[in-house]
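# step 3/5: fold
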Amino acid sequence: TRVTMGSTIGFVGMTGYATGPHLHFEVLVGGVQRDPRQALASNSGDPIPAGERKLFQRLRTQTLAGLSQARVASAAPITD
């Protein structure tokens, strides 16, 4: 199944022993689970057209800067 822009890829819920929102992510190749880092590293995709590279680099820089400033949530066990 391919994910397209605007697709819902998950819902957030906190039941049972959940310590916070999370997303289950897996890669299946031929119906078999694979390490996403290895499976996705081999798919280089189409090159960015020359006329769009400057825009891509600018957006990439902005996005990476925003990600580096993102706060990471932490959770503590709930005690009764």
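# step 4/5: annotate
The chain is about 30% helix and 10% strand.
# step 5/5: archive (pending)
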